[in-house]
Amino acid sequence: MLTTRFHNTSIPNFSNLFDELFNPELVSKNAHSNRPAVNVIEQADQFLIEVAAPGLEKEDFKVELEGQKLIISCQNEEKKNEENLNYRRKEFSFSSFRRTFNITNALDGGKISAKYDQGILTVSVPKKEAEAQSVQTIKIS
């Protein structure tokens, strides 16, 4: 498990942010084989979620934010126009998957973006900027 600790008090505590974003319960050794491989990369200002999905089109994907959950799903059905064929056997090509990631309050869900390029869907989840903490002097009476 990867955890990151920051000791600078001017930025929020991201100590278990990776664990909360990338829920280990959702990725098990017994996961279905049709689930694509996923990389989660932490950068200073964002997390990048890379989904290996070659052979698909960007229209096949759906990226949704539902409450505190980021849902990446895909549904693809290969459609071929094959008229006047006498099938003895035909296996339809259909694939789908759904991956869910927890989004914490330290991440900016309103600024999530995604792009699909050369078989990789990359979803960018920005971290919230650190709020300046003001110092207030309390008068002692």
Summarize the structure.
The protein is mainly beta and 141 residues long. The protein has one helix spanning 17-21, and strands at residues 38-42, 46-52, 61-66, 69-77, 94-102, 113-117, 120-126. It has one domain (17-80, 90-126): Immunoglobulin-like, CATH 2.60.40.
List keywords for this structure.
141 residues, three-stranded antiparallel sheet, disordered N terminus
Structure description:
This protein has 141 residues and is mainly β. The protein has a single domain (17-80, 90-126), classed as Sandwich (Immunoglobulin-like), CATH 2.60.40. 4% of the residues lie in helices and 34% in strands. It has one helix at residues 17-21; strands at 38-42, 46-52, 61-66, 69-77, 94-102, 113-117, 120-126. It has a four-stranded antiparallel sheet with strand order 1-2-7-6, with no helix packed on it. The radius of gyration is 21 Å and the shape is rod-shaped. The N and C termini lie far apart (49 Å). Residues 1-13 and 24-32 have low confidence and may be disordered.
